[in-house]
Design goal:
- The chain is 21% helix and 35% strand.
- By secondary structure, it is α+β, with helices and mostly antiparallel strands.
- The chain has one domain: SH3 type barrels (Roll).
- The strands form two sheets. A five-stranded antiparallel sheet has the order 6-5-4-1-7.
- A hairpin with a 4-residue loop joins β5 and β6.
- The chain starts with 7 loop residues before the first strand and ends with a helix.
């Protein structure tokens, strides 16, 4: 689990389909936040290809797992409001149907 304000780099383990598009295996991104919904833990990731989506922990490798290096940034992480969180899940459920 990330500490508040901490962000880490990650890499997709496999192709991930989301409501904004496709993230290819081995694409990299920055973990912007974490959420728990109905007992499921997910990460909000901003991918280097411009997409932002929620992913499950088993879909990515966190940088510590990749090469034991840490990523630091001066930017602040995004805050997920309840409205944004609900909108994300609505879009996610429509894709999964």
């Amino acid at each position: 689990m990330l500490q508040r304000g901490e962000r880490a780099r990650c890499q997709a383990k496999r192709t991930i389909r989301g409501h904004q598009g496709l993230v290819s295996a081995d694409d990299r991104g920055t973990i912007e936040g974490e959420i728990d919904n109905l007992g499921r833990h997910m990460f909000a990731v901003r991918w280097d290809n411009g997409l932002s989506m929620y992913v499950f922990p088993d879909e990515i490798m966190v940088e510590d797992e990749m090469d034991n290096a840490r990523y630091t940034s001066q930017e602040s992480p995004i805050e997920l409001s309840d409205e944004l969180y609900a909108a994300g899940w609505t879009a996610f459920r429509q894709v999964v149907k």
